[in-house]
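thought: fold this chain, then report.
action: predict
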Amino acid sequence: MKRLYLTVEGQTEAAFATSVLTPHLTKFNVFLTAPRFTGLHKRRRGRIPRGGMLNTFGHALAEIKTWLKEDESPEARFSMMVDLYSLPNDFPGYEASMAKPTGRGQAIALQNSLASEIGDARFVPYLQVYEYEALVLVDPRRISSIYEEAIQRK
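observation:
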């Protein structure tokens, strides 16, 4: 049984991980733990944490390294759901990666830099080129199906 620990940028990514990834990965004997946010983690006066990188990646990097130490089992895997948009410039390899001509090239270079920085094969970084929410909105007919009172247009 493998365990997947996932660092997410916001509530939308956390909901996707919980409602879509968890049932899918369970079929393959991979169990997703509750996703952790990269930003504010505690409730603040009743408000749910918003996540996000804030202005620095350093705090997220430290949290990922701590999480790796919390479960040193070879069965544990770690990843992240973070998008390229507004990535802090202290992200490992940021300047050289952002010089790449395409978003995909930038994301791949940044993922490689982060993997080198972490230095643990159990951590597989993932950067989404486009904001996750943009992918959800690509097909308005599909998103309307998640609302209880979907408006049907012909």
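thought: worth noting. Strands lie at 2-8, 30-32, 36-37, 76-83, 123-124, 127-128.
final: tokens above.
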